[in-house]
Design brief:
The complex is a heterodimer. By secondary structure, chain A is α+β, with helices and mostly antiparallel strands. Chain A is 39% helix and 18% strand. The radius of gyration of chain A is 54 Å and the shape is elongated. Chain B folds into five domains: 2-59 and 568-594; 67-145 and 539-561, Rossmann fold (3-Layer(aba) Sandwich), CATH 3.40.50; 155-234, Immunoglobulins (Immunoglobulin-like, Sandwich); 239-371 and 379-454, 3-Layer(aba) Sandwich (Rossmann fold); 475-528, Immunoglobulin-like, CATH 2.60.40. Chain B is built from 14 helices and 30 strands. The longest helix of chain B has 28 residues, at 2-29. The chains are: A alpha+beta, B alpha/beta.
């Protein structure tokens, strides 16, 4: 019956679809997994293979829906078939009459009523479960982080011959994980030598063949690191705090043929660098009407500048000794990328309290982002100056002038007093007039003495720090002890702050000409000398009670003093090169008895340079023993004073490994050149030449 | 020639004998011959003899107008030949179309005896062929000068610590930069070539031994690295005598430097009033043991006349004498030193000395100085640009050779030969300031330069060697004996075979340091450059040498090159045989006999 075929076929189709629907997610997951693990091509091949297998399986499994199944299913589904549905499929010839009758009945019943669905139920749950699970697996596969690059290790480059049974490095990878603050990504390297930021973590992944019992990283300078085994790989981790050399060794390696050294160079974090963009000069003056002060700094760093910097503001206001300081900290927020930040601010002068004459000093304090301790750098001090009103002309001369009038003005005062006294003379008694004149004369004397100091005069209490306020200086002089020509000098006053100019007076005897030991140039000195002479005459007249007579020299003194004030140059006289001519007649005429001819003590021999590098350098020229032991010892002791000790240590190691390697020896010899001390250049005498050369030289006129 | 002459003599004798026999026979036989028969017989004798001579010594081939073109290294693949020219390629030449290969020029000339003209094509003749070509008229059209390093002049052996100068010439290198690198690879000096391509670079030596510096030329198309051998020898023992009119810093630091440099120093300083520090005496015996003496003006003036004469005699005998000019040259001092061949005048005025920095940069200066000994008394840590201002006396010395110059070219020292010795003058008043300013190394260099020039010559054996020998090329060592030997880099010793001129050939097979050792303290290191090194320099050398050969007289012919081509002797033998046979027949015949 064709219906029978139809029923079975539909059942098979459904069974196949159900199988495929259940198996497809597995195939997908398997294919994608392979693709992620190996490659897309492998994934495609695996997927195709599995799909074919699944198809075959589904076809195969669908075969169970045959006649036997149909009979069973019909019998089970329809009770009215009386378990006789197998008759429907039986061959006509083989049936008995009763069986034929029964078949006709059953056939009629079957045709009369619709046959229920005979096929297997859809395995909904497994299908859904499979798809859900597959979806999860697929998501996981797709979202799984990309496998670390270089799953396969780089081939080792240790060189050396391979010997059976001796472990040998065959794969290597060095992963550098810079400190987090640098923001640098981890860096896998195929080489075992590296330049790494300070504080990086180094992770080695190594592979040996054949598998050794144990392996370690040996640093000749100390700090060995045993490696852990994980599968066929050996791993180890270490923090790189300083540069070092190391080699990878494994148990069972030949101790004499050690593998080559590798080198880790540590690059230290640089402190931030501050560049002042505005103002352009360190010292700037307040301009008229200036209300604010613009500051701008550029800060750069190798990894990053902290986003917040501090600005230290020091306000120094006041004059003379009455200067008040006030310090304040501002916080500035930078802009721009982390490695190059820009800090800018405007300081309101009024708000900062900078209203009087004085200085406002600003200094930027900035840190980088190094961990654990940031490096803090202070920038240059920027000064904003508001000059005092009187010092508008600024400069050294102005300061000098400002100090001097305090003394020079009194000459004018003496003149004014003298003129006033002359005007009052008719009204005054003679003795009163004389005493007043004498008083003015005393003032004139003090003034003269004070100017005498500028001339280096020692008479009359010159060269003291006392102010010309009283007449007691002469009396203060100690009685001079005979035999000590310096005893008459005034005792040195206690050192006062800022009196740096008096060092000579304080610590030494000035034996040279008094006039040469001043701060004044010869012209000024002559003028001052004339002023002193005039003062002297003025004083003389005043003391004698003749102020009228005194006025002329007093005015002259004032004029000279005015000239001195105009003199701008102050310098220290040079002594030494221009000595007075030697009077040969008087030289060495004294008694010389008892003076021996002293033998000159021999000079200490020059320092000899260290012998070890010299010996090695010379030995390396030939093929002999290079005396590496002494050199290594020397290197260990001197390592800190050599620019690149690691390079020499590595070269020493290379020669030690292979004493016959000419290139290694030459390399070490070249490196040793940089540590050879240069001796004092001696004398290379020329060749005497042969007899003919000698005769030629002798015949030269 | 002697063989030819001997044969000719024998033949002349034979002719005379034959004539004698003819006459005697003629007289005895009684047969009356006609005169023409006698004349023919007599005349045929020398003809036969001459033909025999020619058969034995055939005359040189007649020279045609044939020319020989010799292709050398760098010759173009296709050489354009003029009519009558033949092309020969030497082994250095690359593949040349249609050329006959010849192992060397002498072979080529022997093969082509007919050629009368020689034309060289390509880069020029190798050293091997130049000897042969020296006697040949040749024509050479040189190509342009090769660009790059074409001259290299390594320093002569130096003493430890000394500064040395390397010369080089870079052709076509106005934009080139030339660096000198020490064996550690650090740049010690940098310069740009002058207009003529010459460049001078300075470095410093260290301990005794052989060091290979590198001269690096940089510039487009000029890149080349050349090894510069620097041999440092142990310094010869030197005895110095310092005489000073007063103690002073100059004497102090001079003594310090001399002691550091291992110079034995005698000292005599006048302290005034007849008091002396140090007891060096100036008798002839002491002076004969002194290699160099340094006087200042006051010390010289204070010498007795006997002492001055002793010094003058010592200088003529080889000692060096240096006068430190620290004041005006007085008449008597001038006369004394004029007697020592050094004519000094002036000295009243002073001028500042502007020393040029020793190195082009801070790093180079550091590499030049090397690491210091921490506690050294001759400090050398001054900044490169912070050289102290020194003072020199302005001295007029017409006949002297300037020795050390400052940055502006002013001479700081002078010297002149005086007999076997030398007299020198040091014009800087205050060179000690270099030490106190942290330039002790410079101070030592200056004094080392002066005293090395002036000091007594030292007797030692030195062989003369070419400056840039190359592996695979013969080099000639002169002033050697048969007991000397050369040790190659692998340590193999080869005895020398010396020719009559006192020279020996050495064929270095590999590059590296060779040592020439022998009796009399001969111990000389020399460096053999690798085969591929200095290609431009070699090309320029070939070019110049060939140009020099081509500049010779045009009248020279190939025939004088000692390789004479001769014609075949067979025709002469045949002629002689025919003549002899004819003569024999004629003598036998009855022609011209008078019947009796």
């Amino acid at each position: 019956m064709e219906d029978v075929g139809r029923w079975a076929a539909s059942a098979r189709r459904r069974a196949r679809l159900a199988d495929v629907a259940t198996g497809a997610p597995l195939v997908l997951v398997a294919a994608l997994g392979t693709a992620r693990l190996l490659s897309w091509m492998a994934g495609a091949i695996v997927g195709l293979g599995l799909a074919l297998g699944l198809a075959w399986l589904a076809m195969h499994r669908a075969q169970r829906f045959g006649r036997a199944w149909l009979v069973r299913a019909l019998d089970a589904a329809r009770g009215d078939l009386e378990d006789s549905s197998d008759l429907l499929f039986a061959e006509d010839a083989k049936l008995g009459p009763l069986q034929r009758l029964q078949r006709a009945r059953v056939g009629a019943r079957l045709a009369a009523a619709p046959v229920p669905d005979l096929g297997p139920a859809w395995p909904t749950r497994p299908i859904v479960a499979a798809w859900i699970l597959a979806a999860i697996a697929l998501m996981a596969l797709l979202l799984w982080p990309a496998p670390r690059p270089g799953v396969a290790l780089a081939p080792a480059q240790e060189g050396g011959p391979a010997r059976p049974g001796v472990p040998r490095l065959v794969g290597q990878r060095l992963t550098v994980v810079p400190p987090a603050y640098t923001g640098l990504p981890p860096r896998p390297l195929d080489l075992l030598d590296a330049r790494v930021p300070q504080g990086s973590r180094l992770r080695w992944e190594l592979q040996f063949s054949p598998e050794p019992e144990a392996a370690r990283i040996v640093a000749p300078g100390g700090g060995d690191l045993p490696l852990r085994r994980a599968g066929d790989r050996w791993t180890g981790e270490k923090a790189a705090d300083r540069s070092f050399l190391y080699r990878v060794t494994a148990a069972g390696m030949d101790a004499r043929a050690a593998p080559p050294l590798h080198r880790i160079d540590v690059v230290a974090d640089q402190p931030p660098r501050i560049r002042v963009v505005a103002p352009s000069r360190t010292l700037s003056m307040v301009t008229r009407g200036q209300r604010s002060w613009a500051l701008r700094f550029d800060v750069s760093d190798d990894y990053g500048v902290a986003p917040v910097a501090r600005l230290r503001l020091v306000l120094a206001q006041g004059e003379g000794e009455n200067v008040a300081f006030r310090e304040r900290m501002l916080t500035l927020t930078g802009s721009g990328p982390a490695s190059r930040r820009s800090f800018a601010t405007q300081i309101d002068l009024a708000a900062a309290g900078f209203s009087e004459a004085g200085d406002l000093v600003a200094q930027l304090i900035v840190a980088d982002n190094r961990a654990p301790q940031p490096q803090i750098v202070r920038g240059a001090s920027l000064i904003l100056r508001r000059p005092p009103a009187a010092l508008a002309e600024s400069g050294v001369e102005a300061s000098v002038r400002r100090v001097m009038p305090a003394y020079f003005r009194s000459q004018r005062q003496i003149i004014i007093d003298a003129e006033a006294l002359i005007r009052e003379r008719p009204r005054l008694a003679a003795d009163r007039f004389l005493s007043r004149s004498d008083g003015i004369g005393a003032d004139q004397r003090l003034l003269r003495l004070r100017y005498g100091q500028f001339m280096g005069e020692e008479t009359g209490g010159g060269a003291t720090n006392a102010m010309p306020t009283n007449d007691e200086e002469d009396a203060a002089a100690k009685p001079a002890a005979p035999g000590d020509e310096h005893a008459g000098e005034a005792p040195a006053p206690p050192a006062a702050f800022g009196a740096a100019g008096d060092v000579t007076a304080e610590y030494g005897h000035t034996h040279d000409e008094s006039e040469a030991a001043t701060l004044l140039d010869p012209g000024t000195r002559a003028t001052l000398r004339q002023a002193l002479d005039a003062m002297w005459q003025s004083e003389l007249a005043l003391r004698q009670g003749d102020p009228k007579q005194a006025l002329v020299p007093a005015y002259r003194a004032l004029r000279f003093i005015k000239q001195v004030q105009q003199a701008t140059r102050i310098f220290l006289a040079r002594t030494g090169t221009q000595l007075p001519p030697i009077d040969e007649g008087r030289r060495l005429t004294g008694k010389r008895d008892g003076i021996e001819r002293p033998a000159l003590p021999p000079l200490a021999p020059g320092l000899t340079p260290d012998a070890a590098p010299v010996a090695s350098w010379q030995a390396l020229a030939g093929g002999g023993d290079a005396r590496l032991g002494a050199l290594s010892q020397w290197l260990a002791g001197r390592g800190g004073r050599i620019r690149d000790p690691l390079a020499i240590a590595a070269a020493v190691d290379a020669v030690r490994r292979d004493p016959g390697c000419g290139a290694c020896r030459q390399r070490l010899r070249g490196l040793l050149w940089s540590v050879l001390v240069r001796p004092a250049p001696g004398v290379q005498r020329r060749d005497a030449g042969d007899a003919m050369a000698r005769r030629y030289a002798e015949a030269l006129r | 020639m002697t063989a030819e002459r001997g044969v000719a003599l024998i033949l002349v004798l034979a002719v005379v004998l034959a004539w004698g026999r003819l006459g005697w026979w003629h007289a005895r036989s009684g047969v009356r011959a006609r005169w023409w028969r006698v004349a023919a017989l007599a005349g045929a004798q020398p003809v036969c003899a001459a033909l025999l001579f020619l058969a034995l010594f055939p005359p040189p081939a007649a020279r045609g107008d044939a020319g020989l073109v010799v292709a050398t290294e760098g010759a173009p693949r296709i050489v354009v030949l003029r009519p009558g020219e033949q092309l020969v390629a030497l082994p250095e030449a690359g593949p040349i179309a249609g050329a006959e290969r010849a192992p060397d020029l002498a072979t080529a000339l022997r093969r082509h005896g007919e050629a009368s003209r020689l034309r060289i094509v390509g880069g020029g003749l190798a050293a091997r062929d130049r000897e042969v070509a020296a006697d040949v008229a040749l024509h050479y059209e040189p190509g342009p000068e090769p660009r790059g390093l074409v001259g290299l002049y390594p320093p002569a052996p130096v003493v430890p610590g000394a500064a040395f100068t390397v010369g080089a010439r870079v052709a076509g290198g106005a934009a080139a930069r030339v660096d000198l690198l020490d064996p550690a690879g650090r740049v010690v000096d940098t310069a740009r070539p002058a207009a003529d391509g010459s460049v001078l670079l300075g470095g410093t030596a260290r301990t005794p031994g052989a060091a290979l510096f590198t001269l690096r030329v940089r510039g487009t198309g000029l890149e080349e690295d050349a090894g510069v051998p620097v041999v440092t020898e142990a310094p010869p023992a030197t005895r110095l005598l310092i005489l000073a009119g007063a103690p002073g810093p100059e004497v102090k630091f001079l003594r310090r430097w001399a002691t550091d440099a291992g110079i034995v120093t005698g000292l005599r300083i006048a302290a005034g009033g007849g008091v002396r520090l140090g007891e060096a005496s100036l008798d002839p015996g002491t002076l004969a043991r002194t290699d160099v003496a340094i006087f200042d003006m006051r010390a010289w003036s204070a010498l007795s006349s006997a002492e001055r004469q002793a010094v003058a005699a010592a200088v003529r005998g080889g000692m060096g004498a240096v006068l430190r000019v620290d004041g005006a040259v007085t008449g008597s001092v001038r006369a004394d030193w004029r007697a020592l061949s050094l004519d000094l005048a002036g000295g009243e005025a002073v001028a500042p000395v502007a020393l040029a920095p020793a190195a082009p940069g801070g790093a180079a200066l550091e590499a030049r100085r090397g690491p210091g000994i921490a506690e050294s008394s001759m400090a050398s840590a001054g900044e490169r640009g912070e050289l102290p201002a020194l003072t020199r006396r302005i001295v007029v010395a017409g006949n002297a050779t300037p020795l050390v110059r400052d940055g502006r070219g002013a001479a700081l020292a002078l010297w002149r030969q005086s007999g076997r010795g030398r007299a020198g003058a040091w014009l800087v008043e205050d060179s000690f300031a270099l030490v106190t300013a942290g330039h002790g190394d410079r101070y030592g260099e200056l004094w080392s330069a002066l005293l090395s020039t002036v000091a007594r010559p030292v007797d030692r054996r030195t062989a003369r060697l070419p400056s840039l020998p190359r592996a695979g090329e013969r080099l000639t060592a002169c002033a050697v004996t048969g007991r000397d030997a050369v040790v190659d880099p692998a340590g193999r010793t080869t005895a020398l075979l010396v020719d009559t001129g006192g020279c020996a050939g050495i064929w270095p097979e590999r590059a590296g340091w060779y040592r020439l050792t022998g009796a009399g303290g001969l111990d000389q290191l020399f460096y053999v450059q690798p085969r591929q090194a200095l290609t431009r320099l070699r090309a320029e050398e070939r070019r110049r040498a060939t140009m020099a050969l081509a500049g010779g007289e045009a009248s020279r012919t190939i025939g004088r090159a000692g390789v004479v081509a001769k014609t075949s002797s067979w025709p002469w033998i045949a002629l002689w045989l025919a003549a002899a046979a004819l003569l024999w027949w004629f003598e036998r015949s009855r022609l011209g006999r008078r019947s009796t």
